[in-house]
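Hey L., structure's done. Input below.
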Amino acid sequence: MKLRVKFLASLSELTGVLKTEVEVPDGVTVRKLIDILTERYGKLREELLDERGNLRPMYNILVNGRAIEWLSGLETQLKDGDEVVFIPPAAGGYRGPILHTRRSRN
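Output:
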């Protein structure tokens, strides 16, 4: 079966491609897709997964626009024609208190 795959931002730099189509066996999961893509593009698995094989929390993976955390995680089964998007962390993300300042009207 054929999947459409996109790598955004720094992941496109890591793989050298922004989007591609990949032939995979029927019933492949997101986890297996990462393995297949790692064979093709090198260090993708170690970038995306921690030492226990879990998706690092700063990364997102979408299947047809839905985050895999709301599907079956890395065990989400893919179907012919699915689009899988790998999204790295975005810049920013400050989680401290929001400080509101007032401007003087002088």
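Strands lie at 2-7, 19-23, 60-63, 66-67, 83-87. The chain is about 20% helix and 20% strand.

-- N.
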